Predict the structure.
Amino acid sequence: MPRQGAICLSYPAAERMLTGVNRRQGLAILTGLVMLGAGIVSEVTRQAQAQAADWVAHTQEVIGRVEATGTRLLAAESAERVFLLTSDERVLIDFGQARTEALQEARALRRLTSDNPVQQRQVEALEQIIQARFELLMHAVDLHRQGQRQAATDLVQSRGLEQARLIDSHLRGMQQHEQGLLEQRLAAARAARMFGTAASVLTTLVAFGLLAYLYRSWALHGRQMDAKAAEIAGTNRSLSQLAASLEERVAERTRELSDANAELEQFNRTVAHDLRAPARNIEAYAAALAGSASLPPEGATYAERLLSTSSRMQELITALLEYSRLAKAEIRLESVDLRRAVEQVLTELRPQIEAAGAKVVADPTFPRVVAHHAMLNSVLTNLVSNALKFVEPGRKPEIRIGAVRQSDEVVVRVEDRGIGVPAPDQERIFHPFTRLHGQETYPGTGVGLAIVRRAMERMGGAVRLRSAAGEGSVFELHLRAAE
């Protein structure tokens, strides 16, 4: 009783200890989640800052391209004026280069502002004006070359000034739009930087607070564990003593059960042997009475019944002895030629096979199995005998015996076309002295299949049945394959 009390007292303590451990595990997980959240916030902030910086750089590049476009246009116009004043053809080389570069800058602006519909419209209009501007300048060059210098100068000063003002207006508009975007994106970059700093500081403070609390909690837990360790050690000693006591009691009960089984086996053999002599005497007296000519007809009938009963009693005693012997017999498993075993059984049962007019077919080849030769013969004999006996009246038995190797085992099949076994009874027929039919219909002891199962178990195998009422049966013997 004191031992049981000590064990019972340890349960609440263990429950409190587990609750504390779970709480600390939760705190540790929460701390990890906070640190993970801090990392995520830091990464998101970094990405936002990088994106803002990219947009700022993009806007500055657009502004630079706008300014470069104006510079290239100014260079082209300057070269044009020099040509009109000096008629120096070499100046037109600079004009052509400035024209090419101005058009390239306009195309670059179209690509850089592809995400901005407002700027795209500005660029499209700018490209058209620039194209018209260069066409006008080239026309002035042609007029100058034809000697119409005043006409060329007037063309540049009239329509050229108007185009220049229009181009300058578009360039200023684009530049102002990009300046507005630049201010917005610089503000977004500053906001992202400030948010990242604040989030990092906050998550760091929370993480340090949780780590401090967790450290304090684990320190307290350590002291509690030290206190509980002594209690658990005492409980373990009590459990060890109880386990030792239980092992002694189990060993004692096992010895008692083993002795009882041995006594029961001995009793079965003794009873069977002691019953044989009276049974033989009864059979002898019954045979003598049945053969006496002085008996009246009614007495002869009773003598015949007595003779039949004594003969059945002899069969039951023999079956009981065989079933009991299987449990205790010393066996040595060896490689057995399954083909020879089948041939031997069919040779021994040839009189019954011929008397029943049975058709028995055996496979031409059989693999070798690991078994006990005598037990295997007993198993096959019982299965073939049942297949010869349990058939519909007036129908001749049909039996097929075969075997197939499956990996490291051999499956022996004994198949018949008999009356079959209903599904609810397929396990019950393997129990000793179990019969599904009357002695008058199908005589027998009811021990044959019990002997089959016990013999298969002793050989390290198993027996399985596939059957249905009125559709025959297939008994499968699973044995280890011999190398």
Remarks:
- DSSP finds nine helices and seven strands in the chain.
- The domain at 332-481 is CATH 3.30.565.10 (Heat Shock Protein 90).
